[in-house]
TrEMBL record:
This is Cytochrome c biogenesis protein. Keywords: Cytochrome c-type biogenesis, Membrane, Transmembrane, Transmembrane helix. One of its GO terms (biological process) is cytochrome complex assembly. It is found in: Membrane. It comes from Nocardiopsis mwathae. Residues 1-39, 187-206, 553-572 are annotated as: Disordered.
Length: 572
């Protein structure tokens, strides 16, 4: 190729485009300086609307969406490492007891309530807006691309990664007809081209077929991102219209779905107490089994609870076997079995011998290996001047360590023992307090009990009464979860997976076939292809198209392909 330089007579055009004319001897004259230099260039100031548009472009970029998605994943890590109140208040309480120094600081940053924290909600909302701004324009552009015709045939097909050429005696229109047959499965568009032997319209002279397929790849990409939006919407809807509650239910007792029945209740923003499903159930029997031997000795093997439930007060009773990860589904709510513990039974009498307390009290275990559990017994109405309180420790399987201290060496209740510390005075129940803590500021210590086994009675040293350890019951740590967006979220997740599979395995490609009369009157056929992904795979398909078309034109005298080029690279 020859480059042509143009300019005014007597000089050349300067490379900076100023067009300065040189002297007669060919020397270039430097361009005149710009008045004031670059320092005098006025930079326009952005208005408030301009700043808003700039911020919107930044927020709705795919890069920002990826950063926000990464931040959302990072923010979810504390929710999987630290106990969460929405899942188990007991575990949060135990974490406070084990880590009294750092726990208040963690709570200040909502690390025990990650998924309802303001900072997590802010990331969530920004991600939703960013994805909306990214995906909706892309979906509209893809919709227009699907309705548009395939790209026209390039002028020079030999520049494509794959190209082949052969000649045939078949007419160009017959070649194009057979090309459309070979390209079955492609979306095709036929264009007329002028050439030797063409009439006034150029049609007999030749033409081309443009074909494209693999739209499902971009469709899958769009569906994947739209499904992500749907998942975000479903989760948001669940936080508005769903609710979650935790409770401890002692074996042999029941539960009615109402706000007062929960130990911790987390309603959605638009949920009222009247919106709760009116179901109820009774724990008929609970069975726990633990691994006896080996390195996993003491680990829970199975928890099974037999329930009798009713969907409504006037509904018939039904039976259900509740297990971990096998919830009871009733009227759109799911009842989950989270864990298990012990509720020792106590009977307390006052100084006159009257029974003033007789019930099972749930204790919170210190660890899952021994199930050594702590609890308190509060007796506010003793009939005497002073109230009674007991701080207790329950050992399911009594044993002693090397220092002679009382411990439990197995979580199953093989040899249960209770020790008590008694107090009398004011329990302070006129102000809110935890049922699992005994506040002794206004109380006097009476004494410590000996080791009590089921059936043992301890007479309080000052004559305030007696306390009997009657035995124990199992209790179930349970959660009720009602999420009306659960099914939509599942469907959206399924669509996201299907869209991702389409993105990974569908290969978009384009093919062109041109047929035109040659100088010798024969038809010259050119075949070319372009793939945006796997070049090796695409080369095989394009070669199949070329040979298939040649074979279909075999009835007419035809030559074999004269030139072919296979490029391992791809072009956009």
């Amino acid at each position: 190729m020859t480059s042509v330089t143009t300019g005014e007579p007597g000089g050349t055009k300067d490379s900076d485009g100023t067009g300065a004319v040189g002297a007669a001897d060919g020397e270039a004259t430097p361009p005149a300086p710009t008045p004031g230099g670059r320092d005098d260039v006025a930079v326009p100031r952005l208005s408030a609307l301009g700043w808003a548009r700039w911020a919107w472009r930044i927020l709705t970029s795919m890069r920002t969406a990826l950063i926000l998605l990464f931040l959302l994943a990072i923010g979810a890590i504390p929710g999987s490492v630290l106990p969460q109140r929405e899942v188990s208040v007991d575990q949060v309480t135990n974490y406070y007891l084990d880590n009294p120094d750092i726990s208040p600081w963690l709570d200040r940053f909502y690390l025990f309530d990650v998924y309802s924290s303001p900072w997590y909600a802010a990331i969530y909302l920004l991600l939703f807006v960013s994805l909306t701004g990214c995906v909706l324009p892309r979906a509209m552009a893809h919709y227009r691309a699907m309705r548009a015709r395939p790209p026209k045939t390039p002028r020079n097909l030999e520049r494509m990664p794959y190209s082949a050429r052969f000649t045939t005696d078949a007419a160009p229109d017959e070649v194009l007809k057979q090309a459309r047959t070979v390209l079955k499965g492609y979306r095709t568009e036929t264009d007329a081209e002028s050439g030797p032997g063409a009439d006034a319209t150029g049609t007999p002279g030749g033409g081309s077929v443009a074909a494209e397929r693999g739209y499902l790849r971009e469709s899958g990409n769009v569906v994947f991102h739209l499904a992500l939006l749907a998942i975000l919407l479903a989760v948001a809807a669940g936080s508005f219209f769903g609710y979650r509650g935790n409770m401890l239910v002692v074996e042999g007792t029941g539960f009615a779905n109402g706000v007062p029945s929960y130990d911790a209740f987390y309603p959605g923003h638009l949920v009222d107490a009247e919106d709760l499903q009116p179901f109820s159930f009774t724990v008929d029997e609970f069975r726990a089994s633990f691994i006896e031997d080996g390195n996993l000795s003491g680990q829970a093997e199975s928890y099974v609870a037999d329930l009798t439930y009713k969907e409504a007060p006037d509904a018939p009773e039904e039976k259900h076997r509740l297990e971990v990860n096998k919830p009871l589904s009733v009227d759109g709510a799911q009842v989950y079995l989270l864990g298990h513990g012990y509720a020792p039974e106590f009977q307390v009498t006052n100084s006159d011998g009257d029974v003033v307390f007789d019930q099972a009290v749930p204790f919170l275990f210190r660890d899952t290996f021994s199930f050594t559990s702590d609890g308190v017994v509060k007796v506010p109405d003793t009939g005497d001047e002073d109230q009674l309180g007991f701080s207790a420790v329950f050992y399911p399987s009594e044993a002693q360590n090397s220092e002679g201290e009382l411990i439990s060496d197995f979580p199953d209740a093989r040899n249960p023992v209770v020790t008590l510390q008694a107090f009398k005075g004011d329990l302070g129940m006129r102000s809110p307090q935890s049922v699992y803590q005994l506040y002794t500021e206004d109380m006097e210590e009476i004494g410590d009990s000996p080791e009590l086994r089921p059936g043992d009675t301890w007479e309080l040293p000052d004559g305030s009464g007696t306390i009997t350890f009657k035995g124990y019951r199992d209790y179930l740590s349970m959660q009720v979860n009602s999420d009306p967006a659960r099914i939509p979220a599942l469907l959206a997740s399924t669509l996201a997976v299907l869209g991702l599979l389409a993105t990974l395995f569908v290969r978009p490609r384009r093919a062109w076939v041109r047929a035109k009369r040659g100088d010798d009157g024969r038809t010259v056929v050119e075949v070319a292809g372009l793939s945006k992904t796997d070049a090796a795979w695409a080369t095989a398909e394009f070669h199949r198209i070329a040979t298939g078309l040649r074979d279909r034109l075999r009835d007419a005298p035809a030559s074999t392909p004269t030139t072919a080029k296979h490029d391992a690279g791809t072009k956009e």
